[in-house]
Structures
1.
Amino acid sequence: MKFVKFASIFAALLLLAGTAQGFDPEAGDGAKGKDDVMKCRGCHDGTKTAKLNPGGKTKKQWTRFFEADQKKLVAKHADWASFALNNDQLQNIHRFLIERALDSDKPQTCD
Ligand code: HEC
């Protein structure tokens, strides 16, 4: 019993540590994201896969993809781990996308 208790506390601590380094939709640097997003453009170039179009979604939709639906985003990409993106880079890409989202000051609808 003691072990079970210990194990669950340990699991809870791990979970906490995980969320502490989790995705922060307010963080990120859009200028850096412009470079980081090149990794995505390798596939999302309009031939192999649809272009990654920042102006194709609203800020809220992008944030949902990166935050709440990040599992879904990862699931769409079988080789996600090979992109080797860390949380900072993901935050940068997210910022890059929402700065050009449909409801931003400068929506980017092509490229
Ligand atoms: C190895 C090729 C590849 C790379 C690299 C890649 N993607 Fe994708 N992506 C795909 C494929 C294939 C799909 C599935 C298309 C579908 O489901 O219609 C997809 C789907 C998506 C979708 C869902 C589109 C939608 O509206 O439902 C998003 C968002 C997305 N990718 C974002 C990204 C981001 C952000 C990156 C960079 C971090 C990235 N992708 C890198 C191949 C790639």
2.
Amino acid sequence: MWIPSYTKLENDDIIYHVVRRFPLATVIVHDSRGVHVDHLPVTVAPSAPFPTAGSVLSAHVARENSLAEVLRDGADVTLVFHGPQNYVSPAWYPDVHDAMAVPTWNYIVVHVECSVELVDDRDELLRHLQDLVQHGEELVNGTMTMSEMSASYVETLLPYIVGLRCTVRSVTAKAKTSGNHGPQRRLAVAKELHHRGADPMMIDFVLPHPDVVVRRATLADVNGIARTHVVSWRETYAGIMPDSVINGIDVVGRRLQWQTTFISHANNVFVHVAVDNRQGIVGFVSGGRTRSQDLPDSHEIYAMYLRKSFQKRGVGGKLFASIMADLRTAGATSVMLWVLADNPTTGFYEAMGGIAIERRDITYRGATMPHVAYRFLP
Ligand SMILES: CC(C)(COP(=O)(O)OP(=O)(O)OC[C@H]1O[C@@H](n2cnc3c(N)ncnc32)[C@H](O)[C@@H]1OP(=O)(O)O)[C@@H](O)C(=O)NCCC(=O)NCCS
């Protein structure tokens, strides 16, 4: 799926919400016999850590569905969840006569890559059916439960279906929701969609939203920081660092690291986050007393990462200014940071007034790479 940066949907809560609200997935499997496409309602337990890799989605098919046979030996499957979608008429734009007014189609979709195992176990299948009924009833504000249905009829039908346990490998999501248009057009489109009874999720996405906010982080931000850390790390170092180092960090490990920062070093480390009101935490910066004792600087910026789709619109500058303000208040006389010499971000630090003061080879996770230290006067 082609995902221009302004359509990239990265907020796990929203992705979860799309899959819960629109559970009928298009199931795509391909094997040596060809491509198999079907449509199945899929459940995700309300408490499951979906969309994290390793989380589990459940579904079922009729035993006589050829898909059951295709999936019998274990198969890689793509599930496509279709969120709200709407045609957008250029007639709705206040500047309709502008040369750049053409129709478009807005939509929100989630693609889940997973490996699927068949479930013959009666109890697991029943649990999935109970979840599915509860989920469906929630969608229609109903209260019906499995226990109110004829148990003997359910028992009669059970042998005719087989469960699917889908273990998530990766999730990509896209919200093509007028994000490339200015606030006037977005407001006008949101009004027209509301008038036509469009899904509230679509209207919420289309409405113009305020800029990314930069604020001090708290312990409650740990999950968002850890996710952004991993995503931005991979985006930043692809092609610069060896793959073993790039893939060496994961969300769980980063969560532990950031929990330690907030719980054990709360008084010594400053952390600021950049928060988008739809995508959640999209960037962070941390700093405190210098760790490079052999350099004369009193303080250091330890890490600074911003998701690619939010770069080059001033957010990094805001993060930098806010950490420098905290370090200044903490008594910093000069602030340094280490950056990989091959990282184009060196240009950002120079734009922030940094002066290169030192070059060193630093070994990280077994890879030795040239680094540059920059100094800033607070
Ligand atoms: C570093 C980072 C936070 C900068 O964020 P950003 O939002 O893109 O930066 P901004 O848009 O606020 O840019 C501020 C200024 O820096 C300049 N700038 C930004 N990136 C630049 C680059 N790579 N080269 C040269 N100048 C750059 C901008 O042109 C802007 O200058 P201006 O104020 O004169 O217009 C972001 O690029 C990032 O997260 N990169 C990946 C992670 C990384 O490498 N972290 C460093 C590890 S030590």
3.
Amino acid sequence: MLRIFFLVGVLISYNISAQTVCGGSDFPVNFDSDVEQFACSRTSAIFNNIKKFQSHYTPDANSPILTVSVALHIWRDGNGNGNYLDNPADRAYLTNLFETVMSNGFKYNSSPSDPLPGVNDLTDTRIRLKLQDIYYYDDDTYYLNGVSNNAKKQLNARALELHPECLKSINFHFSGNTSVGHASQHTSGGSSTNSPRNTFIWSGYTGNGLGDGSAPLMTNTLAVKVMLNHELGHAFGLCHTDDEPACKEKIDPNSLDFLSDIYAPPYTYPDGGWHLDPTSPSNTATNNVMGNTAAAAYLSPLQIGRIRRTLSQHYLLQSYTSGYSEVPLEVDVDETWDFPHKIYQDVVVKSGARLTITCVTTFVSQAKIIIEPGAELILDRGRLTKAKFEDYWQGVYVAGNSSAGQTEADQGKISIINGGEISYALDAISNTNVDSQGNWLWGTTGGIIHCDNAYFLNNRRDVQLLAYTPPYAKNESYNAFFKNCTFLRREDSYS
Ligand SMILES: [Zn+2]
């Protein structure tokens, strides 16, 4: 039993990290194990009834705006020719292309050319694209690379070798190969060792901008916009809505990701074809981004939901994404989180609810967990940590009532058992509530902390205890214990 005494009226905040360890091969804990390698059962009711469905992620006005980082890579010959030039005019063109055509094209959602009754279409995906940078390569070896898997890997590997910061972006390559026109492909990356560990899109740069043949650069941006958004759609988990065989949506009302807001009886695929006019009565083509027409500009609510689910649950795609909503995720019934996900808002465990985490939950830097009085958070082998490429997250605030005794009805409670872990937090556990600015709220100390076989890794501060002095409980032991716990810090970065 860890006994912690408090002085009346004196604020105590201290760090009980046991030791500091500089990185070394003998370090006993695998800090760098990736989220995707954490075995998660995904058998909980909350996952199977709610969190696995794309409809759950269709955004509303309170949903976090998710911003995905994108880097542009321009491949030229050894003399710096054969593609966009590294001069102010071309840089301005590409930047403008990105901001006004690509980014806005993904942000503002058009109306459907073929609406289904009852579908509440969205005008804003609440997804943004952020240009990391434009990179130029004068490289006779690779600048004509095409769309084969090996060719794509070579481009991406070379780009990452020269610019490792691009690991945190989706990389969009403009090859100098004129023979492939506007062909483009995507890959979902993957975790195999011979695959680049970030998603990328390949695109030939030439053509007349309308999707036809070769022509001078910068004549039209339509094809680039359509192509980028289409390929990003693939990267984010979408397939074609027309009958394109390589990857087409399932028309099966019983399948998990059936797009019921696109397909209605008699359940046939619409026509696809670059030059088809979706508004023409002579064909069934649509303006869906994944529908393979030049007019592509629409995503259905379920498609947007699927993308946002990917940005929450896919270990790779989530790591390119940032964003934070000040509207918290409230847990007001008992839930078990046995699936990995990234959180773009605070989590508040409401009074009377118990949240059990048996998998990995990662947080953006602004996010925290608040456990209200009468609520409990259990980390049963579960891990709370910062999201990859993010700064340290805020940590867990176990809110209490300084005027009440330390019963579970009156205080928040955190229990960490079976190797549960909190890592890369500014303040892993605090026994107080905080306001929206992160300021301690007076009168809210008293949260209960039970840690048995818990890990505190690389936190700025592992446990932060503020004075709890109910009038009738002076000098009694605080209701907290740390048994068989590990407190370690290593001077390196998770990402
Ligand atoms: Zn496609």
4.
Amino acid sequence: MTGPDALGLPDGAAPRFESLQTVRDGLRDVGYLADESISGVVYLADRLSKPVLVEGPAGTGKTQLAKSVADLTGSRLIRLQCYEGLDESKALYEWNYRKQLLRIQAGEHGKGELEGPSWKELEEDIFSEDFLLTRPLLEAIRATEPVVLLVDEVDRVELETEALLLEILSEYQVSIPELGTVRAAQLPMVFLTSNNTRELSEALKRRCLYLHIDYPDLDREREIVRANCARPPRCPRRSTGRARSCCSACRPSTPPAPKRRCTSC
Ligand SMILES: Nc1ncnc2c1ncn2[C@@H]1O[C@H](COP(=O)(O)OP(=O)(O)O)[C@@H](O)[C@H]1O
Ligand SMILES: [Mg+2]
């Protein structure tokens, strides 16, 4: 089993939740209605230090679950939005080539009469922290404060990127040839969501706890709408599609013009 000890991470990280009920009540307090299976999986993910793979149709609260867990635990939410073509340089890190080039040029122009920096000095300089662009996965690994990592719509990425994710989620470390190995200081809570547009690899599934969220029944849907109405008004586009049409109480006084893009959320 993978846990902080097995990964060589500093132990002693207290569990985030005392009990299953704490998860359920806490999520309710931040406006998310979790049933038994949702709160159970979140609780176990914390205890077992495992990522959660959340599958289900669009609009059933998969992304919101990760956001709400971040709210509940007072963690920073780091989101990796997946899309076709997402690669290591956008998911993990890349070097800031423009800045590196400028540094090289500045070295050449600035030397004047004097001897400029040697290539070795320059190389050490341009492959240092100052020239590194961190992307969500590396950011989550390097974070020292509590973090929830959301890998959203993972079914959109190609197999190679999925393999990269698997590697990161197994080791919680990243090897940057020029800088060395970066190890996680703490285990973030990780949520991967999938709309099931393609089958994910068995290896990735085995690495995660699995949660399927289906469309709610009518009573639950009413509850979700009420929970969303009880909070300060938010953009109606952010509530579930079916729910929106069934609740006259939460219809805004001035409905947004049809087909107009929402800029507030
Ligand atoms: N269980 C729930 N509790 C509270 N709100 C929910 C719940 N499920 C869905 N919602 C509402 O539906 C909206 C859409 O959910 P979202 O997480 O974006 O769906 P998905 O990621 O599954 O497509 C959320 O912003 C939230 O307002
Ligand atoms: Mg989503």
